[in-house]
Amino acid sequence: MFGLNTLAKVAGELRRDIAAVHDRDPAARGAGSLEIIATWPGVHALLSHRVAHALDEVGIPIVPRVIANLSRTITGIEIHPSATIGAGFFIDHGMGVVIGETAEIGNDVTLYQGVTLGGTGFATGKRHPTVEDNVTIGSGANLLGPIVIGHGAKIGANSVVIHDVPPNSTVVGNPGHPVRVEGRRPEGPDADWIHLPDPIADAIKGLAGRLEALEKAVADLGAAAGVETNAPLGQVRPLRAVRGPNPAGG
């Protein structure tokens, strides 16, 4: 039954959630625990979920849904009471975050605003993502279906992920593509969403390079045959700049 042990468990989880805010939110520098509890919407939503989930686990009807709906109305963050969330979970800003019924989230996971852990189709049973420990998910990312996001993975902003993600990898794009940043990435949260590799741009660049080589070969053949051409060779314009400081401070 819902009793003192459950309340003690919720209190312990809340302490670790507040510590996660101090560790991962630069805006929390100088803010005390009471200020975080009073003014951080991600903490409000998570505390409400901890209580609603505890009530849901012991089979109390209606009340968990009411708590979740009130929390959604106040914070703009929707978490189903049946979703399982580990300790040290941090939602930065949080507006528009949706976490579905059968979602499972491990320890020390970080979500930014607009993230959806959603289902696909109308099937019952497990239909939402499983997110393992130390995962970071960028703004607007959509993770759909009963997929597994491996330990230490990083999901780029606005990515759409519909397949399992290997541990310690980075996924970007729509649909999401696993990539690596500088060969390997360090453990723990990483807020640098600017300097991510772009597999689509890399593929286009490779094709453009092949086209330029073919155009040059044709021009050389024409010159050898005495046929002059003034057509310029194809050039690739970079799709985005990759220079500049790391906004995460690294």
Question: In words, what does this structure look like?
Answer:
The protein has 250 residues and is an alpha/beta fold. It has two domains: 4-179, UDP N-Acetylglucosamine Acyltransferase, domain 1 (3 Solenoid); 198-250, no CATH class. Helix content is 34%, strand content 14%. The protein has five helices and 15 strands. The protein has a six-stranded mixed sheet with strand order 3-6-9-12-14-15. A hairpin with a 4-residue loop joins β14 and β15. The longest helix is centred in the last third of the chain and has 26 residues, at 199-224. The radius of gyration is 24 Å and the shape is elongated. The model has no long low-confidence stretch (mean pLDDT 84).
Estimate the helix proportion, in percent.
25-40%
Radius of gyration: 24 Å
CATH class of the largest domain: Mainly Beta
Main beta sheet strand tally, sense and closure:
6 strands, mixed
Question: Which spans of ≥5 residues are poorly predicted at pLDDT below 50?
Answer: none
Number of β-strand runs: 15
The strand order across the widest sheet is 3-6-9-12-14-15
Residue fraction in strands: 5-15%
SSE arrangement, N to C: HHHHEEEEEEEEEEEEEEEH
Query: Please, what is the average pLDDT?
Result: 84
Number of helices: 5
Would you tell me which CATH topology of the largest domain applies?
Answer: UDP N-Acetylglucosamine Acyltransferase, domain 1
First-residue to last-residue Cα separation: 48 Å
CATH superfamily of the largest domain, by name, is: Hexapeptide repeat proteins
| Count of domain modules | 2
CATH architecture tag of the largest domain? 3 Solenoid
Overall 3D form:
elongated
Global structural class: alpha/beta
